[in-house]
Amino acid sequence: MVLALAATALVALALLSDLIIPRVEELWSRFRAGRQRTPTWSYDPGRERRAEQRARTLLRSCVNDEEWGMYRDLGFLRVWGTLADGPDDVGGTGGAPYAYLIYPHRPIVAYLAQTHRLLNEYCVTFPDETRPYGSSRLPDSDDVLAKWMALTGDERRLISTANMHLPGRQLDPAQVRRDLWRLSQWERARMRQLADNGQTPPPAGDRKSAA
Amino acid sequence: MKPGHGEVLIAEGDIERAEDEQRLVEEFRRQLDAGLWAAVPLADPEGRRESIMVRSFDEIPWDADRVIFFPRAAGGR
Q: How far is residue A76's CA from residue A83's CA, in Å, rounded to a whole number?
């Protein structure tokens, strides 16, 4: 009986040796090198998506219904400029109303509200210097919210921080003008919808003129 | 806001409780010392939304319900 069990164990050990020996060798070499097992970061494919979902929720809680709808439907936000002579110290707008289009991870575009003349592109990033690993990019909606907060909170500071370029350096001017046309169509549709529902349009401060 | 994470709750508390206020002040300073910008989103009764950038704890409106920290802006390419 004992002999039979010993023979079976010997056969099983011989069959498993291909699996066991490499592991024993690895453990032995680690032991000899005095190293510890290094932690490995497993890639989580859903992390970026969850981050973007949280970012969209945060953005929605900060901007008003019109701005949220604009971003949801068109993919960008419009922020009205407040500097008396426009964003650019050199050119100036002569007091004409102007606004910015905020795209995620693209330059901010300044334009004259009534003529749709493009003024400048402002390239700005929000790099995280403290990151231990991974991407230094904010989720798309966080990037938009950061630009929105910086523009509405301290427009001059953000514009002076950004690298200014003439229109067309990164964003195709034809595409931007098309976005402005889409925005005007979107606003008309929204006004009609509000009127049909018997609601009043947003306050005048948010609507300096049609986009 | 953190890259790859989105919104992360850093600290919360009741400003009218001394120990909470002290903790919030310390966390606020720690975030600014780490190079982050701080903004407070505001809404007026007419529905307009904007934010104010704050550089010290005293600048936070007393009725603000949150402060959002985000990486400092830099010129991009």
A: 21
Distance, CA of B36 to CA of A61 (rounded, Å): 21
Measured between alpha carbons, how far is A9 from A2 in angstroms, rounded to an integer?
A: 11
Chain A CB contacts of B53 below 8 Å: 149-150, 153-154, 157
- Buried b / exposed e along A81-109 (16+ C-beta atoms within 10 A): beeeebbbeeeebeeeebbbbbbbebbbb
Q: Which residues of B touch A64 (CB under 8 A)?
A: 43, 47-49
Which pairing describes strands A77-80 and A108-112: parallel, antiparallel, or unpaired?
A: unpaired
Alpha helices per DSSP H over B6-61: 18-33
pTM, two decimals, is 0.77
pLDDT tens, position by position, A160-171: 999 999 999 999
